[in-house]
Amino acid sequence: MYEPKKFTIPELEGLSAEGIKQHIGLYEGYVKNFNAISALLPEYAKDSEKNAHALSELIRRRSFEFGGMRLHEHYFAQFEGGAKPIASDGAFAKQLEKEYTKIEHLIPYLTTIGNMRGPGWAILYFDPVGKQFLTGFSEQQHQGHFVTLPIILALDVWEHAYLLDYGATGKGKYMEAFFKNLNWQVMEERFERLQK
Ligand SMILES: [Fe+2]
């Protein structure tokens, strides 16, 4: 059983406290549903033949709920501590420079991915084997991932992330606000943990 995490999020520029509060409520729903499905599975598995259809749907749903839980934990943590730049002489900045020339080139690229149609997440991963970043789009939250790769940055582009502040057509403005409020030290720590 998982417990919803608590986040200390300061006042953000262009992302309202009410929007964040509602969004955290949705995140807590993913945790609750992951736990609820996990609790149901052993009972259904007792007669897997009779419950084959119900079981397969529960198993498919469970990774959806888990993805929603874990990605939102990555997402909200990125605002904690308030907007902060990357340490310019660190390994993270150097790797970004090597692949994207500079951080300013990564942001439009992630924004382009975020503009893809359909609910999902624009994600920056790091591959410790190939020693390079990979960017991608996870549809909903459990599909399209680069398997096993740790997530460095997660940008939620489901409508619920921006509907309250910017309306149904406000994804572009929302993404601008998202990048203004990031504490890049959080992403830097995620990257540095992989270098050990
Ligand atoms: Fe979300």
What descriptors fit this protein?
mainly alpha, binds fe (ii) ion, 196 residues, 3-stranded antiparallel β-sheet
Quick structural gist:
The chain has 196 residues and is mainly alpha-helical. The chain has seven helices and three strands. It has a three-stranded antiparallel beta sheet with strand order 2-1-3.
Question: Any overview of this molecule?
Answer:
The protein is mainly α and 196 residues long. Helices cover 52% and strands 11% of the residues. It is built from seven helices and three strands, in the order H-H-H-H-E-E-E-H-H-H. The chain has helices at residues 17-45, 52-77, 91-100, 103-114, 163-166, 171-180, 184-193, and strands spanning 120-127, 132-139, 151-156. Strands 2-1-3 form a three-stranded antiparallel β-sheet. A hairpin with a 4-residue loop joins strand 1 and strand 2. It is globular. The mean pLDDT is 95. Bound molecules: fe (ii) ion. Fe (ii) ion is lined by residues 23, 26, 72, 156, 158, 160-161.
